[in-house]
Design goal:
The complex is a heterodimer. By secondary structure, chain A is mainly alpha-helical. Chain A is built from 34 helices and 6 strands. A two-stranded antiparallel sheet of chain A has the order 1-2. In chain A, a hairpin with a 7-residue loop joins strand 3 and strand 4. By secondary structure, chain B is α/β, with parallel strands linked by helices. Helices cover 32% and strands 18% of the residues of chain B. Chain B is elongated. Classes of the chains: A mainly alpha, B alpha/beta. At the A-B interface, helix 26, helix 29, helix 32, helix 33 and helix 34 of A face helix 1, helix 8 and helix 9 of B.
């Protein structure tokens, strides 16, 4: 497959497929243009089954002629060549005209043509039928789906410009550029490089000091040293974890019905810690799927197993518990599918998967691994500390030594009081004959001790409320049987199934002496011959750095996913990732050390139009920053960011009444009470996430609700985003903080200083002029309107400055925060 | 704009030198993204107002008149009727004793439609109404059922109705969002069993998020972050956007990325919204008669009545899809009192909305839908008195109504059995309602699709749906 692909000439079909899914008019224009510059050759180019034919079969045919046995029509399956129902029944190799498939897709007869009108599928276009024709003429060969083949390190290609290539990534990229007659852009200027690296690796921009150091560092390893410095920064983990938290739908509430509080923050902190400590990815997977099944699991292994507790969960009362249980397990399995397999296994809940070879039975075999949780399927009643702490058994407590000392002390004191009380009460009972006075005294003492004990209990409760605890996974002693659920209905059980993995993937290691468990499953995921785990992970890391994955549909690399832009590059990186011992930091370093990564993103409008998502990598990628990065950047550049790590989620201010407008009065909590002090300026990864209504500062900029697994965020550009960046009160306050700092600079250094702090760039004459003019206008406007200026300025932030000056600078900073280059990584 | 201040002068200068009028309009976002889904026929309606009754109103107490149930008071629901229907955890294993409605029903309109005494105003509009008595769904609990009505799927992650329409049809106006959500901030009849809402009910799911609904807020800015911060006058904002626009254009020329142009145009749209949204929510120009028609609650921010009036104003200004949520309908106990309160909230206002649109010649263009997420059982829950009872969730049948938008008025469609428990005739599944709604807006529900997770996702899902052609005028 690879060699054929390497030799292929540019082909329209691949591009067409990818453009159509983009729904991008400009790309269609491009495709048409390419069509014109590439005249058709007498000899048809070699058709690649996986790239050119399988997507068409999958999209138009598999629904009725694919893996789903129950709904298969006419006993024909086109996902396989051979076998009783295989495609060979509809294909005559080398003879397109004699092949039923070709006849059907080109038929003019509405009764005969495939796909039939009633299927509401897009008809096969003339170009597409031409591809089928060539493919059949060339032998109608089938290939295993690329993502399901075992990982092999492909040969590194030789390319036109060897000196450009810093590492093998560049050779794969260069080959693609060569094929398309494109050449790369030069390396970006050093300011851009540093800003890019800092944002990509830590989610925060470089400080002016860091910029100065980098510019002054003339050593040949200056760039690499910076990469190493950033990879060692604890902010790296905070940033990379954020992507993972989207993927596993980490949040702070149940997400269903009352949408009560649910504290999973120790899991979030563990993810951050794992990335910072560079926990090998295979262990990262093991901890999450089966951390509780290690012999004597460590605290971190147990916390990691909390992955199994991240699903939405209903509170007790309305749903039937067995239905809730089934939903939870399905959710767990579906997220394993998305996170570790990059497949939409959830499709097989109701029926065999229509596109990928996963049967419904196999789904429930996976289900059987996750079915045996020793926990109630719904969150419990409102009484007790667990409810208030957002906890549900099983969990482990994580008290600090000081907490533990304090708790032991309180427990001991309570116990000794209890003991005394028992004695006194016994004495009191026997003391009927004692004189009144003594009895009274005794009663008084009991009362006093009871008060003391209650006070201690209150203190203990308060203490326990503060002690972090991590919900974990735990097996029941007796394994709960799993059944196929007919059409996904929890109350319509079919045949009982044993734990097992899908047959199209390599078999799990044999554990014939016992029932296999989640640890066996985890080991299977990270075994050397598993084709998916490394590819899926590498693709997502690539997406984090380049804006789009090598497979754009990073949530689905199955048959309906998109064809990779650089299949061999993905295979290369995935194979390296495994042999490196699943070393995440090494992988990321390899990516950012490539010349590909370091290219300038400046290009012609035409180049942006022809490849808006930069899939060919002929320039540096340019895309809008994520919501969290935009907020953190504002907090950091204005100097107010509190870089404290970890702990319970925090609530920065948000517009009033949002929670009230969706909560039940009995939701816990039902009102948003913002935190105070420096808790409100923590990094956004620590922001409290109510699934029913997540923070608008995040969702307006495309953050997901975290109700289901999200492997990639989209990026839109909307007026609501513009309003947010213009008017959000915390951002406006941050601007004032920066204004105060600017006034500490010499007058002529103020504008360039602010500009550099926020954008990492020094303003040129024109930029300086535009901003200076605006400043002059603002200043004269506000000096004529002192009351207005005063109302803009927060006295706590700028008590010692002239209000009109602060107001004018604040508006200049607000202007710069709203520039496209500020919210964009380039 | 104050013409004498330095910012206005700067503005005039800026317009002169830059050759820029108001910002570039985001033409792209005004175009339909899925023209292929539109049917050849001219659409019957341009707008939808969906009055969502979260919590599920009781059908036998409002629309589904069953006088014979009087004889069944406290008698067990026959098993031939319940047929092993699954129930909620609340009434599982309990006796199912029939409780007839305590409310009187009256005939109204030319065709004599039966309606509860709790809906006196709506009864007067019955010539406009198409009462659906055979709606049905699968889910038996609120959250999945609401998610199903709003997005066509019980599980989160799918696109909501309004998002589908924006995606399929494009925006009508360029100064306001295309899909607006109005939640009642309070309701009458008590706050027991109030419904939770979730932003996914108006989310865009797998569709680009620019299609998601914009939930207007009751207090503060109707659109989040709409107002300039304290001390930032409109002139200042204008001047700031001119400076930002100038720099953005400069960067566009240097970098080459046309996305920067989109940023500029979205900032300009944001600026226009700072005027258009306050204008929209300002009711001071409404006549006394109009305000009175919507009832006394119209003066209160966040009332259902006020939201109905706002919905009419939105239709006038070209908003495509407006969804109201009223969420106090989950009457497991003391139903008569609570239902009276809810009916009080919605009866006069929704009747006024129909009439108001009709008077302005907008009713034909506007499809109004009134529905909850499921129905309520004929058997009682809680205290079982003639005048005090509750009812549990019931997915097998529920009632709702449609008005305007090319729907026949003065009819009821579909029938339930004697116990208002099963659909006896002409079932209308939620996906059929979706298909019909899309059809009235000129969209073929089978063609409106979006590829996600390997499927051509559709609002109507994978089960067969149908347009309920019998109710179209």
């Amino acid at each position: 497959m690879t060699t054929r692909f390497e030799n292929h000439r540019f082909k329209l079909a691949g591009i067409l497929r990818h453009t159509l899914s983009l729904l991008s008019l400009s790309l269609l224009v491009l495709a048409a243009q390419l069509c014109m510059v590439k005249p058709s050759h007498a000899e048809a180019p070699i058709v690649n089954f996986n790239r050119d034919i399988r997507p068409l079969l999958s999209d138009r045919c598999f629904h009725c002629h694919g893996p789903d046995e129950e709904n298969r029509k006419a006993g024909l399956r086109l996902d396989r060549r051979d076998g009783a129902e295989g495609a060979i029944n509809a294909l005559t190799p080398n003879d397109a005209a004699g092949s039923e498939l070709y006849k059907r897709i080109t038929s003019k007869d509405p009764e005969v043509v495939m796909p039939p009108q009633a299927a509401h599928k897009k008809p096969i276009s003339p170009q597409e039928s031409k591809l089928f024709q060539s493919w059949i003429r060339q032998g109608a060969n089938y290939e295993t789906y690329w993502a399901f083949t075992s990982l092999k390190q492909p040969a590194t290609p030789s390319v036109s410009n060897d000196s450009w290539a810093a590492n093998s990534i560049d050779r794969f990229v260069m080959r693609k550029l060569d094929e398309n007659g494109l050449s790369p852009k030069p390396v970006a200027d050093r300011r851009t490089l540093l800003r890019r690296l800092s944002l990509d690796l830590t989610g925060l921009p470089a400080t002016r000091e860091e910029i100065a150091n980098f510019l002054a560092n003339k050593s040949s390893t200056a760039y690499e040293d910076t990469v190493d410095r950033l990879l060692k920064s604890p902010k790296f983990g905070e940033h990379v974890a954020r992507h993972w938290l989207d993927l596993v739908r980490f949040a702070d509430t149940n997400g269903i019905h009352h949408d009560h509080y649910r504290d999973l923050s120790p899991y979030r902190d563990w993810v951050i810690r794992s990335f910072n400590q560079n926990l090998p990815y295979d262990d990262f997977v093991r901890y999450q799927i089966a951390g509780d099944l290690y012999e004597n699991p460590t605290q971190d292994q147990l916390i990691g197993s909390g992955f199994n507790r991240l699903h939405m969960i209903i509170d007790r009362g309305t749903m039937l518990p067995e239905e809730s249980h089934a939903r939870n397990v399905i959710d767990r399995v579906t997220s394993v599918g998305t996170a570790f397999m990059g497949l939409t296994v959830g499709c097989a809940v109701c029926h065999d998967h229509k596109y990928d070879p996963i049967t419904s039975r196999e789904f429930y075999q996976l289900y059987a691994f996750f079915n045996n949780i020793d926990a109630t399927p719904e969150t419990g009643g409102r009484s007790g500390n667990d409810f208030k702490r957002g906890l549900q058994k099983p969990y482990i407590e994580l008290p600090s030594p000081e907490d533990q000392r304090q708790r032991d002390k309180l427990l001991a004191q309570t116990a000794s009081l209890e003991k005394k009380l028992v004695e006194l009460k016994a004495a009191d009972k026997n003391a009927a004959e004692l004189d009144n006075n003594e009895d009274k005294q005794n009663k008084q003492q009991i009362k006093q001790l009871e008060n003391q004990r209650n006070a201690l209990r209150g203190e203990l409760t308060n203490l326990e409320m503060q002690i972090p605890a991590a919900m974990i996974m735990k097996e029941r002693d007796e394994i709960r049987p799993a059944h196929i659920m007919i059409r996904g209905a929890y109350d319509d059980l079919g045949e009982q199934v044993e734990r097992g993995t899908p047959a199209f993937l390599p078999a799990m290691a044999d554990v014939s002496d016992r029932q296999s468990n989640r640890m066996d499953l985890a080991n299977w995921f990270v075994s050397k011959d598993h084709p998916l785990t490394a590819r899926v992970a590498v693709n997502r890391f690539w997406q984090q750095l380049f804006g789009v994955g090598i497979v754009k549909t990073s949530e689905d690399i199955g048959a309906q996913g998109e064809w990779p832009s650089h299949p061999d590059l993905l295979n290369h990186l995935a194979a390296r990732f495994v042999t490196s011992g699943w070393d995440v930091k090494a992988l990321i370093k390899e990516m950012v050390m490539s010349t590909t990564y370091q290219q300038s993103s400046r290009a012609t409008p035409h180049e942006y139009e022809t490849d808006p998502e930069n899939r060919l990598l002929a320039r540096g990628s340019r895309y809008r920053l994520d919501a969290e990065v935009i907020r953190d950047q504002i907090l950091a550049t204005s100097g107010v960011l509190n870089s404290k790590m970890g702990g319970k989620s925090v609530k920065p201010p948000q517009p009033e009444g949002l929670w009230k407008s969706v909560s039940l009065p009995s939701s816990y909590p039902s009102r948003y009470v913002p935190d105070t002090g420096d808790q409100v300026v923590r990094r956004s990864v620590y922001t409290f996430w109510k699934r029913g209504l997540p923070p608008p500062q995040m969702t307006i900029l495309n953050a997901p609700t975290r109700e289901d697994c999200t492997a990639r965020r989209e990026r839109t550009n909307t007026p609501l985003q513009a309003l947010l960046l213009m008017n959000e009160q915390q951002y406006m306050k941050a601007a004032q903080h920066l204004a105060v700092q600017a006034l500490n600079l010499k007058a002529e250094r103020r504008l360039p200083g602010i500009y550099e702090t926020i954008t990492g760039r020094v303003p040129d004459t024109r930029e300086q002029e535009v901003l200076q003019n605006a400043f002059n206008d603002f200043e004269s406007f506000y000096s004529e309107r002192p009351a207005l200026a005063k109302s803009l300025v927060d006295d706590n932030i700028a008590p010692h400055h002239a209000a009109h000056t602060i107001a004018a600078w604040t508006m200049i900073i607000n202007t710069i925060y709203n520039l496209d280059i500020t919210k964009t990584r380039s | 704009m104050d013409q004498t201040n330095p910012l206005s002068q700067a503005r005039r200068q800026f317009l002169k030198t830059s050759g820029m009028g108001l910002g570039v309009t985001a033409l792209g976002s005004l175009l339909p993204q899925n023209a292929i889904a539109q049917t050849n026929k001219a659409p019957h309606a341009k707008h939808v107002i969906f009055l969502f009754m979260a919590g599920a109103p009781s059908l036998v107490d409002l629309f589904d008149y069953k006088p014979d149930l009087e004889k069944q008071f406290k008698k067990p629901l026959p098993e031939s009727i319940s047929q092993g229907q699954r129930v909620t955890a609340m009434t599982r294993g309990k006796e199912q004793l029939v409780v007839p409605s305590m409310f009187k029903f009256n005939r109204s309109g030319e065709n004599g439609l039966w309606m509860s005494e709790l809906l006196p105003h709506l009864s007067k509009q019955s010539d406009h109404l198409c009462i659906l008595k055979s709606l049905n769904t699968n889910a038996i609990n609120h959250d999945p059922a609401k998610t199903f009505v709003c997005t066509g799927s019980e599980l989160p992650g799918k696109a909501s109705m309004g998002a589908w329409l924006s995606y399929g049809l494009g925006a009508i106006n360029k100064d306001l969002p295309d899909f607006i959500v109005l939640n009642s901030a309070f309701w009458t009849g008590g706050t027991r069993n109030v419904q939770g809402l979730y932003s996914r009910l108006w989310g865009s799911g797998f569709l680009p998020s620019k299609y998601q609904g914009v939930a207007f807020q009751t207090n503060g800015d109707p659109v989040l972050f709409l107002s300039n911060p304290k001390g930032v006058a409109s002139d200042v904002r204008r001047r700031m956007l001119d400076a930002a626009g100038e720099l953005n254009r400069k960067h566009m020329a240097e970098i080459g990325d046309h996305e920067i142009e989109t940023t500029i145009s979205q900032q300009e749209m944001a600026f226009r919204m700072q005027t258009s949204v306050p204008e929209l929510t300002d009711l001071s120009q409404e006549s006394k008669e109009t305000l009175e028609a919507y009832g006394p609650e119209v003066s209160k921010n966040g009332s259902f009545a006020r939201n109905c009036l706002l919905a009419r104003r939105m239709v006038e200004r070209g908003v495509r899809f407006i969804q109201l949520f009223h969420r106090g309908w989950d009457h497991h106990s003391i139903l008569p009192k609570q239902l009276r309160g809810q009916a009080y909230d919605v009866d006069q206002a929704s009747a006024a909305l129909i009439q108001d649109l009709d008077q302005r010649g907008l009713l034909d263009d506007t499809l109004i839908v009134f529905a909850g997420e499921f129905g309520r059982t004929v058997y009682g829950q809680g205290k079982l008195a003639r005048d005090d009872y509750g009812r549990d969730h019931h997915p097998r049948c529920f009632s709702g109504w449609l008005a305007g938008g090319g729907i026949k008025g003065g009819i009821s469609y579909g029938k339930t059995d004697d116990f208002s428990y099963n659909v006896a005739e002409n079932p209308v599944a939620v996906r059929d309602l979706h298909a019909t709604l899309l059809h009235q807006l000129g969209i073929d529900y089978q063609k409106l699709s979006f590829p996600f997770q390997g499927l051509d996702q559709k609002l109507t899902g994978v089960e067969p749906a149908r347009v309920v052609t019998e109710i179209l005028s």
